[in-house]
């Protein structure tokens, strides 16, 4: 394949490199600061419940603000929204650095900071997702999504390690470095050069606020794609049980847990690089359904495995197959949505993703308490495969999607 048609051509597109850099630096910072806050609050409280509150404080703002976020993203310049979000994140990280340095930071202070960051991220992520089609043409969107996904997966691999390393050097360091990286991210987002045309200023009504939900419901392909991912992650969330598998089944210790946690991200990174160089060009809907079925099958293999090498291999496949679904879903959502609706649709999509991740972990934990981790993993994998078969009947339009070229 001619490299001029690969990911480098996307990176050379005006504005795209600034967009990707903004997302990567922001994600690196968020992952790094998340590890530091989790370690710090557990060190102060020695409470698993307090750790659970960290996740809850991240999720609740997104659930509450979703529909406000979408309306804002459709009415104002998305670059400026991204700028304000990342500057607030930088200031929050700086306050955390100062509070840690002066030994003022308490568990309630950490939870307050997590809530602020959760609210800001609720605005930032769907806004940045809706911004991408304003930067690249529809013909390049799949490559742009895949290239951005590969960079984000790299950040997901590096960010937690960076946060842990910096915290080991000095508890202030991850917060100070994150503040700097958030500032770099904000510089990149406002440096994006593009002609932004404001959408029609609709009167704010309940109908306009919830227009994203109505839009998705009226388009079977979009509803089928988003709901397929929702149920697949809800049912196939056995990776939330990795500490149990590492300690009690694989007897691998902390190093094994680290390897297991990294494996899905590494698989996702590899697949996103492949998709950036060789985009899906035919029978996209069927390939997405097949990828989700493979995700379920790999989850079953992981649940049954008692060998660390096989478990890592299964998780690599989990990450790679999930990425196919992510790229197809993200591309379809952007291609099928008019620009004046992208903020609201992206916000609803982000809520679906966040809900599936959070509730998937909760569901897996509750099932594991009753059935045990192995049976939970097998049930989740089988459930995912059953959902694929059901969705083929409930949303036949999915099987007819041929291309992502716009």
Layout of secondary structure:
Layout: H1 7-11, H2 16-45, H3 48-75, H4 78-101, H5 107-135, H6 141-169, H7 173-190, H8 206-209, H9 211-217, H10 220-235, H11 242-249, H12 253-277, H13 284-304, H14 308-335, H15 342-371, H16 373-394, H17 396-399
Our estimate of the beta-strand percent is under 5%
Q: What's the N-to-C terminus distance?
A: 21 Å
> How many strands, what sense, and barrel or not for the largest sheet?
none
Overall helicity? over 70%
Helix tally equals 17
Bulk shape: globular
Evaluate the radius of gyration: 21 Å
**Poorly predicted parts:** 1-5
Mean pLDDT: 81
Task: Provide a descriptive summary of the structure in words.
- The protein is mainly alpha-helical and 406 residues long.
- The chain is 81% helix and 0% strand.
- The protein has 17 helices and no strands.
- α10 runs parallel beside α15 and α12 (253-277) packs parallel to α14 (308-335).
- The longest helix has 30 residues, at 16-45.
- The two termini are 21 Å apart.
Task: Give a quick summary of the entry.
The chain has helices at 7-11, 16-45, 48-75, 78-101, 107-135, 141-169, 173-190, 206-209, 211-217, 220-235, 242-249, 253-277, 284-304, 308-335, 342-371, 373-394, 396-399. The protein has 406 residues and is mainly α.
